[in-house]
């Protein structure tokens, strides 16, 4: 088998066999195919596309290119969740304790963030003492004993995806539905869960900017899950507005704690509770309505916040943070960003808001960058709200005083006003499962 022939075949619009896909992934991971040939094939795939079978095969082969986590020691159906990412997206911190409190084991391996704010792991590390680098044995033991563990990815998960993504990033071949879907799903398959729920974001603060592309991506990933033996479903949610009021690591943990105590922002509660109920439904605990009632009871009874506390304690964190937010890292500088005009907030360019939080220190520009856990933005007003001149829209938190004005300039560009109250879109725009993915 020759790489030249595989490139030529896809260039001319033909589908690749499983053997050809396996050859490409195996040989490239073993450095026996040069980057220029791998780039040529990626561009051919980008331009010619892949069919459903090819995409599922590519995903499966990438998933098996490294470690496959075995969760079979954990009793029951294991469910995993993935979000395509957004500004203020802390849903994992809310839904994981809820689902565990409802009796479904949550074994969640999450990543770090590169961009606006930290990933789930970075946010958890804002809790003093919290250890995300536990061994796989302790990870599984925690799930078996208390029903939940969230830890950083260990071992060699889907190394083919890591290597290919780095190449796609510099060859303008990122934005292809099959390549995006296989990248995301290869890591989910390698993580070992039986069921997968996907939160596909759409809008200015999301990777996919329009609803049509977001639905296509969701359907593609659901098909992959089903074609590789994992029941999979997806919801498409709006990311034209930051989720919740908090953007930044400690700020987002605090907001998650408030939500688990049934006093969080309405939008964060809606999306998190929907995802939690869909996870329970995927695990065959009943109809969606029944599962939603279970979610609400877990929160209202205090079981969800108690499960969060159990996880924090088990992984070495200080549980006093649940009642004393002053124990979180504190920013030296706080600055109120006030409105220069009166009117309604018509729109928020959420990606620009993300850059503003990055400027304050809440995210990473490169993998080597360090995160300031105290940095971020806490909004007082969002899209649809009336604002008077001089009224506080948001409070900025940072340890870099010199960055405050540049962050404010970004917010000036991000927040748009109108004289009329805008009509808000629904938060949850679509639900896709194996019955609706064709």
TrEMBL record:
Single Gene Ontology BP annotation: pyrimidine nucleoside metabolic process
EC numbers for this chain: 2.4.2.2
Catalytic activity: uridine + phosphate = alpha-D-ribose 1-phosphate + uracil; 2'-deoxyuridine + phosphate = 2-deoxy-alpha-D-ribose 1-phosphate + uracil; thymidine + phosphate = 2-deoxy-alpha-D-ribose 1-phosphate + thymine
Name of one Pfam family that matches: Glycos_transf_3
Group of enzyme by EC: transferase
Record key words, sorted: Glycosyltransferase, Transferase
InterPro entries given in the database record: Glycosyl_Trfase_fam3, Glycosyl_Trfase_fam3_N_dom, Glycosyl_Trfase_fam3_N_dom_sf, Nuc_phospho_transferase, PYNP-like_C_sf, PYNP_C, Pyrmidine_PPas_bac/euk, Pyrmidine_PPase_CS
Biological role stated in the UniProt entry: Catalyzes phosphorolysis of the pyrimidine nucleosides uridine, thymidine and 2'-deoxyuridine with the formation of the corresponding pyrimidine base and ribose-1-phosphate.
Record-stated family: Belongs to the thymidine/pyrimidine-nucleoside phosphorylase family.
Protein name per UniProt: Pyrimidine-nucleoside phosphorylase
Organism: Ruminiclostridium herbifermentans
């Amino acid at each position: 088998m020759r790489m030249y022939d595989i490139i030529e075949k896809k260039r001319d619009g033909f589908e690749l066999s499983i053997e050809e896909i396996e050859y490409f992934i195996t040989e490239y991971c073993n450095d026996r195919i040069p980057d220029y040939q791998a780039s040529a094939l990626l561009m051919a795939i980008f331009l010619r596309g892949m069919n459903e079978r090819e995409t599922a095969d590519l995903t499966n082969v990438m998933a098996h290119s490294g470690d496959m986590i075995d969760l079979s020691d954990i009793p029951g159906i294991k469910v995993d969740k993935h979000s395509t990412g957004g500004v203020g997206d802390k849903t994992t911190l809310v839904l994981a304790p809820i689902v565990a409190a409802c009796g479904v084991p949550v074994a969640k391996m999450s990543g770090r963030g590169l961009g606006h704010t930290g990933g789930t792991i970075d946010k958890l590390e804002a809790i003093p003492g919290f250890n995300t680098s536990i061994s796989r044995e302790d990870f599984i033991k925690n799930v078996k004993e208390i029903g939940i563990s969230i830890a950083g990815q260990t071992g060699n998960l889907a190394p083919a995806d890591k290597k290919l993504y780095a190449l796609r990033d510099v060859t303008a071949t990122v934005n292809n539905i099959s390549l995006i879907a296989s990248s995301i799903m290869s890591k989910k398959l390698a993580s070992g869960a039986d069921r997968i729920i996907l939160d596909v974001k759409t809008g200015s603060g999301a990777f996919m900017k329009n609803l049509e592309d977001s639905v296509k991506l969701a359907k593609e990933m659901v098909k992959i899950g089903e074609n590789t033996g994992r029941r999979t479903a997806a919801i498409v949610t709006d990311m034209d507005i930051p989720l919740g009021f908090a953007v930044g690591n400690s700020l987002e943990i605090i907001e998650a704690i408030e939500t688990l105590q049934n006093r969080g922002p309405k939008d964060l509660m809606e999306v998190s509770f929907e995802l939690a109920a869909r996870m329970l439904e995927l695990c065959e605990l009943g109809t969606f309505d029944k599962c939603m009632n279970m979610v609400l009871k877990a929160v209202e009874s205090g079981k969800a916040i108690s499960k969060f506390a159990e996880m924090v304690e088990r992984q070495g964190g200080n549980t006093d943070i649940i009642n004393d937010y002053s124990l979180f890292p504190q920013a030296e500088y706080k600055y109120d960003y006030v409105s220069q005009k009166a009117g309604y907030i018509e729109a928020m360019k959420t990606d620009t808001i993300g850059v503003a939080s990055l400027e304050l220190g809440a995210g990473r520009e490169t993998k080597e960058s360090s995160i300031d856990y105290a940095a971020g933005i806490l909004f007082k007003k969002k899209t649809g709200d009336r604002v008077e001149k001089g009224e506080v829209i948001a409070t900025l938190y940072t340890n870099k005083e010199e960055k405050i004005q540049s962050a404010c300039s970004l917010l000036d560009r991000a927040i748009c006003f109108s004289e009329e109250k805008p009509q808000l879109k629904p938060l949850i725009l679509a639900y896709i499962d194996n019955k609706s993915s064709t």
